[in-house]
Each structure stands twice: as C-alpha cells, then as structure tokens.
UniProtKB/TrEMBL annotation:
It comes from Sutcliffiella rhizosphaerae. It comes from the Bacteria. The keyword DNA-binding does not apply. Residues 111-214 form the Fe2OG dioxygenase domain. Keywords: Dioxygenase, Iron, Metal-binding, Oxidoreductase, Vitamin C. This is Fe2OG dioxygenase domain-containing protein. Its cofactor is L-ascorbate.
Length: 218
C-alpha cells in the first residue's frame, strides 16, 4: 500500500477556551473580531463599555507612577508610560471587570497580577518586549502565560500594540482588547509574541493590562 505522505499539521493546545466568534459573559456579548492561530492572538470587541472605560480612567488618574519593568521593577527607556495597579476587587467595578477578564482568558483571577492601568502621552511607548520572564540559569517557578490588553480610549494617532516578528499591529480602540499567550512547548512560538506599545503621535492612550501566571499568584 502506498504510504500516506500528507503533512500532518500539529497544533499545540492553547489556553484560550473560546472557539465561537461570540463569548457570552455577564449578559454581555464579547466579539472575536480577528484571530491568528499560532501564536494565538485574538482581537476582541465589546470587552468594556464606554462607561467602564471612563470610570477606570477616573479611578486611576491620581494614582499613576512611572511604569517599571523586569524582575527588579526598574524605571527605564523600555517603558516610558505611567501606570498603577488596582488591588484585587478593590471596588465593585474592578471586581466585575476582573471576573470578566478571567472568563475571557480562561484562568482564575487568583493567577493574575492585578488589573493594571497604563497611560501614555505623546512620544511615550513600551518598546518591543516579551511579557514572559526569562532566566538563564533556572526555570521560572510561576511563569506568566497570557496577556489581555484592553483599550480605554481611542488614540488619534500612534499607540498601536505591534508584534514586529509577525508584521501585525492592533489599533487602540475604546472598549476593544487584544489577547495573546506564550506558554507553548515550542519556544519559537513564544518568541513570536514579541510586542510593544507604539509611541503616541497625537492624543494620549489609556489601556488596562492583565497578566496571568500559570499558578496562583496570591
Ligand atoms: O500598551 C500596549 O499596547 C502594550 C502593553 C503591554 O505590552 C503590556 O502591558 O505588557
Ligand atoms: Fe507586554
């Protein structure tokens, strides 16, 4: 018998649990607008209402500090935004959004690092980076596995979330979000999730980021 020479395309298991183009959560219909399969990058619509976006901005405005990066949480050129973290469930709105984010990402909120609000003014950016941690000599004990970046306003010009290794970018649009994950066995797929927040050219940018860990973080 002739041997079957068809290529077998093997796809890795993903974390994101939704296969349909709509996700029903808390009586709200979140839309899957676009989807890249490997690495999985999902553009989502109707994640937050306009009022929720405005309230998150109002609640964080007076609590912003220069954003930090890396294990040592340092301030530097890599990330020039200001930002803050809400405490877990610190008010009704944050609790409600945490629950929604957890359902979208398919991971309990206890694995999260807290909802983080970011503000970028003209010229400010988050240069291309990986959200996962790397350690040269020992495995990371509780690695980050996935990210959701939600946009809280429309940016007039600039401020896209860009993935330079994929020639792909997502414009910041109020209430929408981009999800991606980087817990693949094939490390090449994780490396393709290199991404950044492009410098703001006109206007400013407000976003909310949720980083999830493999295991409980708190
Ligand atoms: O601001 C963005 O578009 C990207 C933010 C980001 O990469 C992060 O918070 O890890
Ligand atoms: Fe990031």
């Amino acid at each position: 018998m002739a041997k079957d020479t068809k290529d077998v395309t093997y796809k890795e298991q993903t974390i994101f649990p939704h296969i349909r183009n709509k996700i029903d959560i808390q009586g709200r219909e979140v839309h899957v607008i676009a989807r890249l399969e490997e690495p999985l990058i999902v553009v989502l619509g109707n994640v937050l209402s306009d009022e929720e976006c405005d309230q998150l901005i109002d609640l964080s405005m007076d609590r912003l500090n220069r954003s930090k990066t890396g294990n040592k949480r340092e301030v530097g050129d890599l990330r020039t935004s200001t930002s803050m973290f809400f405490h877990d469930g610190e008010n009704k709105l944050v609790a409600k959004i945490e629950k929604r984010v957890s359902e979208i990402m398919g991971i309990p909120i206890e694995h999260g690092e807290g909802l983080q609000i970011l503000n970028y003014k003209i010229g400010q950016e988050y240069k291309a980076h990986y959200d996962y941690f790397t350690s040269a000599n020992r495995p990371v004990s509780n690695p980050r596995v996935s990210t959701l970046v939600m946009y809280l306003n429309d940016v007039e010009e600039g401020g896209e979330t860009y993935f330079p290794k994929l020639n792909f970018s997502v414009s910041a649009k109020k209430g929408m979000a981009v999800y991606f994950e980087y817990f693949y066995d094939d490390h090449h797929l994780n490396e393709l999730t290199l991404h950044g927040g492009a410098p703001i050219v006109k206007g400013d940018k407000w976003a909310a980021t949720q980083w999830m860990r493999r295991k409980k973080h708190k």
